Amino acid sequence: MRIIIISVPSKRTALPDYVKSLAKGMESMGHRVDIMDAWTEDGTRLPGYDYIVVAAEAVSFFSGKIPDALSKNLASASSLSGKKSAAFLKKGGLFGNKVLSNIMRAMEKEGMVVNWSDVLLNAPHAEAMGKRIGA
Predict the structure, then answer these.
(1) Among residues 49, 79, 105, 130, which is most buried (max CB within 10 A)?
(2) Contact, 115 vs 86, CB < 8 A?
(3) Mean residue pLDDT across the chain
């Protein structure tokens, strides 16, 4: 299966370890995985994938908001209706459930079908979650 992971860290930084581990877990199951940085790329290539995974962080520890980069990327994609997807949130902050809900709301607004969501505790946990995609 062709899978893309949209990495949405709270600020423009290097690729987080949990995103690399998530991709490693998916690749170990035989999937072809690409990673997209939401801060530097647009969503024009998203319709070409079978499964879309969003791995995001909260804007700040005391906030329930998600970075604007995610909404902009999803809106720039042409046709995401009916795409299977998953939403993952890096653990941290006081309003984790609200942040995860906001991620899923942004995805469903574009017509995506979110069939899995979870909170990632650390890199080994992310790799274990990656092995469960498509299984």
Answers:
(1) 130
(2) yes
(3) 90
